[in-house]
Design brief:
Helices cover 33% and strands 10% of the residues. The chain has a 3-stranded antiparallel β-sheet with strand order 2-1-3. The longest helix has 27 residues. Among the domains are: 90 residues, no CATH class; 89 residues, no CATH class; 55 residues. The protein is of the alpha+beta class and 348 residues long. Keywords: Metal-binding, Zinc, Zinc-finger.
Length: 348
């Protein structure tokens, strides 16, 4: 007879802590009470798209974290994770039958916002939902590396071809084959063909690069990689990009100045959220309570937790079957209470 699988109380608490950290990483860096509209085009924030108010075929729109709670409670929302330089659209002209409850004086449109297919629930170059039941990939296997921090899709790499030069030297290995370019000793180095430093619209050649330009130095090494598939980057890779005046101008012309900003990364945003959450939290009341329980009482808590976990898993399968990836805790608790009506809802 197989031995019954047991879960320690430490395992339970560690799993709960991991879930809280994941939520804090995305949400704690944004204000859950006040609309972000008065802040203008926020550097980075958690965003949602409401398919109830702006369905497919209409104009795309995004709402901040606070508005997703206060103005769109109970609606079908697409989680957009975080986006940069965005101003909350809630209640503007795109929402014909909804007025923002948190900030009334808003312009009809936010002209500097950028939209994509994400606002209608499809993602990536394959235009698939997330989570994707067909498990589509990015044209390349995801490398198994603890260094992995950021990803740039093949389309964006091709639109900014200078990134392929950096990828041959800075990206996480294993995602694509790297090859050494063979140079012809009979051809002067300045006549050798290399990657364009930037897209043609910038109209600057390699020879115009400043002395000591790191990008030019990498190009002259001649090491390349296959121009195919998404590219994965390790932590601190941005700090190794060239920041000479010429490269700064080129990045600005391409709208990529944020690549030189270490605080722009998702990791920096997440760390800010975690730090803010830890500052707000005091001592863990659960840990304090457990210190006063004996062994038998702790085991009873573990068994109760496991029973609830099994029932909740069955319940959540309903959401997976309907393709929903976003819901409110209050709605979840109420539906769960109806699903298993011998429980009382703790948050209603």
């Amino acid at each position: 007879m197989a031995e019954e699988q047991t879960v320690s109380l430490v395992d339970v608490l560690e799993e709960n802590e991991e879930l809280e950290e994941e939520a804090s990483a995305v949400l704690a860096g944004s204000d859950s009470d006040l609309c972000s509209y008065p802040q203008g085009y926020v550097k980075r924030q958690a965003l949602y798209a409401c398919s109830t108010c702006t369905p497919a075929g209409g104009e795309p729109a995004g709402v901040c974290l606070a508005c997703s709670y206060k103005c769109h409670e109970g609606h079908d929302l697409f989680e957009l994770y975080t986006k940069r330089n965005f101003r909350c659209d809630c209640g503007n002209r795109k929402f014909t039958e909804l007025q923002c409850k948190l900030f009334l004086e808003k312009d009809e449109l936010n002209s500097q916002n950028k939209y994509s297919q994400n606002f209608f629930g499809v993602y990536c170059t394959c235009s698939r939902p997330y989570p994707d039941p067909d498990d589509q990939h990015l044209g390349v296997g995801v490398p198994d590396s603890v260094e992995l921090q950021e990803m740039i899709c093949e389309s964006c790499m091709n639109n900014n071809s200078f990134l392929w030069t950096y990828s041959a030297h800075l990206s996480v290995p294993g995602a694509a084959v790297e090859v050494k370019e063979e140079t012809n000793p009979n051809v002067p180095k300045e006549e050798e063909k290399g990657d364009d430093v930037m897209e043609p619209s910038c109209k600057r050649s390699r020879e115009e690069a400043e002395p000591g330009c790191r990008l030019k130095e990498l190009q002259e090494i001649g090491q390349k990689r296959v121009h195919s598939g998404a590219v994965f980057w390790p932590s601190a890779w941005r700090s190794k990009l060239c920041s000479c005046n010429t490269c700064k101008e080129r990045l600005s012309a391409a709208g990529l100045s944020f690549l030189l900003d270490e605080s722009d990364t998702v990791l920096a945003y997440e760390n800010k959220g975690k730090s803010s959450e830890q500052t707000r939290q005091g001592p863990d009341p659960l840990m304090s309570a457990l210190d006063n329980l004996n062994r038998v009482q702790q085991l009873e808590i573990i068994h109760g937790y496991n029973d609830m976990k099994t029932e909740l898993k069955d319940f959540l399968q309903r959401f997976a079957a309907e393709g929903k990836v976003s819901f409110r805790l209050k709605d979840l608790c109420w539906d769960y209470w109806e699903f298993n009506n011998n429980l009382s809802c703790p948050v209603l």
